[in-house]
Write a structure and sequence with these properties.
- It is a single chain.
- By secondary structure, this protein is of the alpha/beta class.
- The protein has 2 domains: 150 residues, Aspartate Aminotransferase, domain 1 (Alpha-Beta Complex), CATH 3.90.1150; 238 residues, 3-Layer(aba) Sandwich (Aspartate Aminotransferase, domain 2).
- The chain has 14 helices and 13 strands.
- Helix 3 crosses helix 11.
- It starts with 21 loop residues before the first helix and ends with a helix.
- The model has no long low-confidence stretch (mean pLDDT 94).
- The chain binds pyridoxal-5'-phosphate.
- Pyridoxal-5'-phosphate (PLP) binds next to helix 5.
Length: 416
């Protein structure tokens, strides 16, 4: 029998470039991801790497939350839930905010999401579109401008160095135009560790409400605030202001649950409905038994808060030792962070012939000391390095030793 051969003409050759959509092509790859990758590459080559790029707690998830997830599995909470999240979850968030902060949050204002990142994405995508401006204070978390880019809106950055990287109402007022639709505020801030004082935050939100500008508050590091700085959630604001506010919350850092992928938004019901609609066509909802575990953990507030306090105390001890040590390195200047777990180091004094940019300083640390930091340029702050202290004291000691050797001894010797 004679075989019949068909020659199929595929429209694309294998070598052809994939036609990535315009919306995604415009987005940049995360600089924090690149830094993590650099650390992984060195490690693979067998180097003793100190990774100070980590954006997650180095603690395990508290045992009782793990047990609750197992309990959820045994109870067969393994099916689809509502896109907004299961009732016990939205009710637990509402109850928790009432008990912990005295906030009047209804379950209908809560939408469960797959981490704070999806909470931010849901919020931004349901309000921004082409022609809109979104205000983003500098330095910013790398993802903010990329989400805005994806929506087709324009990021308008606010310089905050004059106010020590702490956003002020005056700076916001100067940046608002008739195209401003949204502002994204992250306090405590990644990367700067700065905290906007509650009174100033209130002033900013009052101003935005007066101008009809919506406010997305990224409260991912909500509980990681070192006294005397104060924990503040915009969920406590009165209803007339809350009409303009969406809180993006996350369990990732608070309970050391980055891999579980769970967060939430708290917003007015219309905004929430739009986010539910969007999410129902994407992730649908975060994992059912993870929602269950988080709902039950929030009900056990005393236990949850005590786990958070333990982590906060450990971060505080690291911070109190690490920041003064960083300031003892030639050319490094670092303000005391009031929250989160990042040191944001000004290395502009080092820039000149040897180092043109902070990226060169980060590269030098990487190649000469196998110490991996994140260049500030990705956060809109060229001249700075973000150094995470979400790592053991032992690693921090080693890192300081290596950095001092490079900048206080070797570079000094070369200069003489
Ligand atoms: C400022 C900020 N917001 C949001 C997130 C997102 O966290 P997740 O999606 O893990 O909840 C992160 C994570 O690093 C962050 O640093």
């Amino acid at each position: 029998m004679v075989g019949v051969f068909f020659i199929i003409h595929y429209p694309l050759s294998i070598d052809m470039i994939f036609p990535t959509s315009e919306n995604v092509s415009r987005m940049k790859t995360s600089s924090t991801f690149k830094a993590m990758q650099a650390a992984a590459n060195l490690r693979e080559q067998g180097f003793d790497v100190i990774d100070l790029t980590v954006g997650e707690p180095d603690f395990p998830t508290p045992e009782f939350i793990k047990d609750l997830a197992i309990e959820g599995l045994h109870k067969n909470i393994t099916r689809y839930t509502a896109s907004a999240g299961m009732k016990p979850f939205t009710e637990a968030v509402s109850h928790f905010y009432g008990e912990q902060f005295g906030a009047d949050v209804t379950p209908a204002q809560v939408v469960a999401s797959c981490g704070g990142k999806q909470a931010l994405f849901n919020a931004a995508c349901t309000i921004l579109e082409k022609g809109d401006e979104c205000l983003i204070p500098k330095p910013y978390w790398v993802t903010f401008p990329e989400i805005v880019t994806f929506t087709g809106a324009k990021s308008v950055f606010i310089e905050t160095e004059e106010t020590d990287f702490i956003l002020s109402a005056g700076e916001v007022r100067n940046a608002i135009t008739d195209k401003t639709k949204l502002i994204i505020i992250n306090s405590p801030s990644n990367p700067s560790g700065r905290v906007v004082p509650p009174a100033e935050m209130r002033k900013i939100i009052e101003l935005c409400a007066e101008k009809g500008v919506y406010v997305l508050t990224d409260e991912c590091y909500l509980f990681f605030v070192y006294p005397p700085a104060e924990v503040f959630t915009s969920a406590v604001l009165p209803r007339e202001l809350r009409r303009f506010v969406c809180v993006a919350g996350s369990f990732s850092k608070t309970y050391a649950m980055t891999g579980w992928r769970i967060g939430y938004t708290i917003a007015n019901e219309e905004w929430s409905k739009a986010m539910i609609k969007l999410q129902s066509h994407s992730a649908t909802h975060p994992t059912s038994f993870v929602q269950y575990a988080c709902a039950r953990a929030m009900e056990r507030r005393a236990e949850s808060m005590s786990a958070v306090q333990e982590m906060l105390e450990e971060y505080r001890q690291r911070r109190d030792w690490f920041i003064p040590e960083l300031n003892r390195i030639n050319g490094f200047k670092c303000a005391m962070p009031e929250g989160a777990f990042y040191a944001f180091v000004d290395v502009r004094e080092l820039l000149g012939d040897k180092f043109k940019t902070s990226a060169d300083v980060a590269d030098y640390l990487l190649t000469e000391a196998q110490t991996v930091t994140t260049d500030g340029a990705g956060f809109g702050a060229d001249g700075f390095l973000r150094i995470s202290y979400a790592t053991s004291m032992e690693n921090l000691h080693k890192a300081i030793e290596r950095m001092k050797k490079l900048f206080n001894t070797e570079l000094q010797t070369v200069a003489q």
